[in-house]
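Q: Fold this one first, please.
A: Sequence and structure below.
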Amino acid sequence: MSDTLTHWIDGAKALLPDAIKLRRTIHAYPELGNFLPVTVKTVRDALAGLDLTYEEGPSSCGFIATLKGPGQGRTVLLRGDMDALPMPEDTDLDFKSTVPNAMHACGHDSHTAMLTTAARLLHANRDRLAGTVKFMFQPGEEGHFGAVKMIEDGLLDRGPKPDGAFAMHITPNIPTGVFGAKPGPFMAATDEVHITIWGKGGHASSPQHALDPIPIACEIVLALQNMVTRRINPFDPVILTIAQINGGTTTNVIPETVVIAGTLRSVSEESRKIAKEGIARVANNIAKAHGAWAEVELIPGYDVTVNDARMVSLAAKAAREMLGDHSFFTMPAPVMGAEDWSYVLQKIPGCMVFLGVAPAGCDHNTAAPCHSNKMQLEESAMAHGVALYAAVAERFLDKGFD
């Protein structure tokens, strides 16, 4: 194994107690959205005393901390997201959430702690750096377009502009300490689907005098699933999930309207476009066939996250050199969750990797996943994440994509 890269894992393990303490502090005080004053103060306090410069914008609490090495070469961007989810926590952790209906159920507390610790580790070894490292502390990943706000504020364009970008996301559903990624489409685009069917209300005993929207809604739901399987290339798949059907007020009244809602997930813009057109066509025409009317609203979500193959290769080599061949695997398919890191990768070549954090004694196949109210993680794996942030930064600044 490379002496240089082994140095990073040794340094990360030495700082692991501080990373765990920081992660637990953030976990206990989760914040939502694009303004996270407690979290930002916690991070800035942990970075105090380091020779970093800071930049922030008006649209969110997101900030970039910049570390300059002795070299004047490339610039690499490392990212960690900071926001939590609007949901209760049902664990028995000593440091469980103290905020009602807010929980770090997606591991952003660990992302932030790992990135902060990586900044400390890289700062202590900045003589190794052939260029500049930018640490992107991002809010609002959970549906609030925090990355977009930071981009619109110009934070990624301020000199020196990054030449490469790297991010990490934990998952309890990969073995502890193991990294996984793939080149190309890595995570899905996601869009909200809202369909309102307008009929004519009436008495449940006399449906012939009404226009019942409920069976029309049911027909639309089934037809949409058929549209997905018969009109979309199975090798460029989409997932259309109808998660809500709402209509009616009581048992003896035919309602005027029914609302269908769900999500569309896709891994290419081509299939995304075909599916959106198909949803509108199916809903409108089925409603029209019954003499009713449908109103279709498709609310755009995050774009497809597309990994640059060169950065995936760089991260894989760095992980294997530090931790052995078993430490990185190539994923066979994209994950159908979504990430606003996608917008950063549209501007800067880079990638995201998963880090396995299956809790001790727990089968990663059955561990409570991200977004579960019972999600927990193995904190010792954070040392691997800290080390890979640092190793990717050094390797990219030294050699680029070569």
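Q: Good. Now the second chain.
A: Here it is, same layout.
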Amino acid sequence: MNLLYHWLFPSVWTAFTVYWFGSALCVKRIQRSEPHHQRIMRFILTTFCAALLISPRFGPGPLGWTLLPPSKTTFFTGAAVLLAGLGFAIWARLHLGAYWSAMVAVKEGHRLIRTGPYRLVRHPIYSGILTGLLGTAVAVGQLRALIAAALLIAIYYRKSQDEEHLLAEEFVDEYPAYRNEVGALIPVSGLPQKIFWSTAAVVLLILFV
């Protein structure tokens, strides 16, 4: 049981990362992409978030302050949310296929995907990864997890905005309609989405403060 508690989350994230970059070998060539410095900065910040969540080195000191007391409930709830989130991200990745890119980019022969998880949200990979991150944060229950979650949400929000801009330029007629019909990270758009994020922020404050 101790092995489960110590290694479940790092093992799942490691396996996910290996699959993620291993499957990048079968993608189409990039036609247009974001500036190089943006890509490097996002990689550094994302790596820092991962270390903040997983590495025990950040446990001592203020970053290790307990916000959610550790228990079997928080651990297994977090594990279930993690697996559901990463499973959703993998489904989206498989559905996107050769059009996937780690950077903000348009591929050769790119087409707008609106099937599978892309019928539900415009950025299902980000939705899945962020859900997995929040599950991990619940299990860790420390200040460092809340900081990592907040930082990665900001990173993905900025990246999604950059992607929206690029896709709107590439698919002038299709993308505006898609954006109006489908939510960005949750399956609703417009006012319901704003209400959701406001409610989520309040719930996080209640749970972690």
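Q: Anything worth noting on the second one?
A: Residues 24 and 61 are 38 Å apart (CA to CA).
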